[in-house]
Amino acid sequence: MGWLRTRDSESSVTNIELFFDLIFVFAVTQVSHHLLGDEHPTWGSAGQSALLLAMLWTAWVYTTWITNWLDPDRDPLRFMLIGSMMCSLVVAAAIPHAFDKWGHVVGIAYAVMHIGRAAVAVALLRGEALQANYIRILTWCTLTGCLAVIGGFADGWWRIGLWTAAVVIDFLGGVVGFYVPFLGRSTSQGDWVTIDGHHFAERCQAFVLIALGESIVITGSSLATDLDEGHLDFSVVGAFGLTFVGAAALWWLYFDRAGEQGSRVAATTDDPGRISTVAYHWIHPIIVAGIIVTAAADELVFHEPTAQGVPAATWTILGGTALFITGHALYLGIVRGRIPVGHLVALVGVGVLAVVSSWVSVLTLAALVAAVVVGLCLWDRRVVNTSATPHLVL
């Protein structure tokens, strides 16, 4: 019995895939809260949050590759997805103490999910040409899963180092085609050519929406807190308006044209495996990270809108926007064939705001950054480039 999706038409996202995504709504919230720490973000909490996000993204995107090839509406895949959900939920729940008392829980859950997922794929692909690809992936996942477990039982910098090594090796696996001695390597024109680029693009766009949802939740909950406490002055109204407009502008910039262009390129290219890998697997976590940092900044805008020269607020407001624009520019460099000039101008604008940030309030800085993003949205709408020719430089 074959377990592969049919390729008669573009694959649609299934209900079980959307159900799987719900875990990552909670996971993104946990990462955002970890970034904020007890009161303000620190370089330590930023580094830890980046590492945790990388682990969560790896767990999510590796699963997305499998459900692109294998039919998630078949019982074995449903059981695999539900098991992955359970492991992901454990990892997400343990995030507040991932670097102290519950590191081993994170490491074990991550390894069970990472190795188990690939093992299921190997078993279900028996007799298929794609099985060799997943035998190689299983080899790499076993290595990184073991590093995650060992790191979970280690302490301090050893834990950080081992988990970082696991994430980096997972990334390098895709770069070198999961090369294994005597088993060869996977290639985009061979093993990955059967990927459904439109489905993969749609799935990654869903994760962008998950991250944007965190910004909306923080804006709504912060406003609710102020209303409960009887606070409704200019700063509260301003914080609400600016954080909401900022989230809407990020959505507009991504989904107005670029999202559809990316889906079209991924669906029509002769090398969907390469497009899916570079534009989505590798570049999209930068976009997601920018949104999460921006969401954390939104909370700081509500907490201290009139303060000046607050480093944590300044660098989350500017850093989140810069990360998003950088990731989006790289993404457009793939789907449109060149890095957009407007994005480079916007990054220069963010740099200028960094220079003057010490002399303006947090609320004013948020307004200026929102103006940069809105301006970029308007600029991007004027770009005449409907061909969306992919251009990959690796």
TrEMBL record:
- Which keywords annotate this record? Membrane, Transmembrane, Transmembrane helix
Q: What is this protein called?
A: Low temperature requirement protein LtrA
A Pfam family of this chain: LtrA
Does RNA-binding count among this protein's keywords?
Answer: no
Residues annotated as transmembrane: 12-29, 49-67, 79-99, 105-125, 137-154, 160-183, 204-224, 236-255, 275-297, 312-332, 339-356, 362-379
The species is Williamsia sterculiae
State the superkingdom: Bacteria
Q: Which InterPro entries match?
A: Low_temperature_requirement_A
